[in-house]
Write a structure and sequence with these properties.
Layout lengths: L1 E4 L2 E7 L7 H5 L5 E8 L7 E7 L5 E3 L14 E10 L2 E10 L4 H5 L5 E11 L6 E11 L3 E6 L4
Antiparallel strand pairs: 1-2, 1-5, 2-3, 3-4, 5-9, 6-7, 6-10, 7-8, 8-9
Length: 152
Amino acid sequence: MRLFTPAGWVIGTLHVPDGLGLLPFLNGDEAFFRMTNVSMPAQPETIPFLALQRKAVFIVVPGEDALLGLDEHERRTRHEVACMFAGGLVMGTLPLPKGVRVSDELMESEEFFAIEDCTVGIDATPDPVMEAEKLVFVHAAEIFGVAELDGE
């Protein structure tokens, strides 16, 4: 699992309780995430354990085998958005229930939410990085702007 923080990418095993989806876990009430076998920028060796503060996480890129915990039962309208945070942005599709506007969904939220079919841009000066991801979770409390790109 990859988590983007003010220090850069933190890569390792995020410990999610069995049977709990990743999104409900991210939006739980624990102040710190427990990670093991962690790689960090400018750290040559793997760190056996890291307690990472929830509010330090901007985005989460789930692993291939992660149980996501997304509610996929209701019909959703897809909105093209760009979410800006310190050090980068995520552009992609935000699926919302029919009739719910992007601003209505995010104005009061401090939780993580899913962006699908996205491009993640990281300002890794001097070499900015752009990468495509199928899905990322964005921390609403840590973004400083959201633009709706499709004009709906």
